[in-house]
Request: fold
Amino acid sequence: MATRYEAICRRVGKSFGRNTLIGRAIRAVLPVSTLEVEGCIFTLHPRDNHTEYQMFMQCSPAEPQTLDYLTQRARGKRTNFIDIGANCGAFCIPVASASDLHSKIVAFEPNPVMYKRLIRNIELNGLCNITAHPFALGP
Reply:
């Protein structure tokens, strides 16, 4: 459930483009928030991450059609899924939640700040079928 402050930030933020002076000023004061998005819990830091900003402002995934496609394919099935550049877990967490407990979800996130957020979001959702790695798969 969003707080009153979060709801006001969303309403005002949507009134102004994120690239306007007022939109940038609003983004600078957005709170770190724990929200439910598509049945999964995320701690979001909308000030410094575009994906988290989109999730915070929309209360939905940053790429809803893609996520819907992935979760429908995984729902209730034993799934193998690799998330390269997992960010805050916007894809791997909903896929892991939708899939069978014996699924193998592997997430790679090289940014140390984002890796900590990813781990936090995995823990918030109590998921044991995700393995996260703090490194990149390429240069």
Observations:
- The mean pLDDT is 90.
- The beta strands are 33-37, 40-44, 80-84, 104-108, 130-133.
- The CA atoms of residues 97 and 126 lie 9 Å apart.
- The first helix runs from residue 4 to 15.
